[in-house]
Amino acid sequence: MYKLLIFIKIVANRGDALKTEEQKLEQSFNLLQKILSESFHIDSNSFTYPYADLSKIDHGIRNMMWDNFAHTEQSGNLISLGQDQQFLIIRSNLGFYNMLVFPIAKEHSPFISIGPFRAGEFTLKFFTEIIKILPLSIESIASLKNIYEKLPYVELATITNI
Question: Which helix or strand (DSSP H or E) is residue 140 part of?
């Protein structure tokens, strides 16, 4: 994962010396976003403080599954933790993953979210385990199955070795 952070920082530092760290980050993010999308079909988003529209992190999946889900409440703790870690790989209890990258170590750091993606083959056994632990309606279960089948598959070992 540190290679990914180094890539982001190298591309960011190739820019105009008068640009801010955030402007350089946005420039490198555009290239990273294109690579992830075109090569791996994985979505990514960049966020700056005050972190508007955090539902983009999971394509609004949690909002579809649970009424009154507050991304701001849930994500605040992750963002605080991530500012010390630089990388977070998050497994949702809905069975998908996201990676958060914090290339600038500072309070209210901008960050990049990569995903959502799944880290295993979609099987009936796996899906049954998910719906056993979550209080979801029949409609939500059908929606989640449809969404999950379409998520890109990524081997976690390849991410942790980046």
Answer: helix 138-150
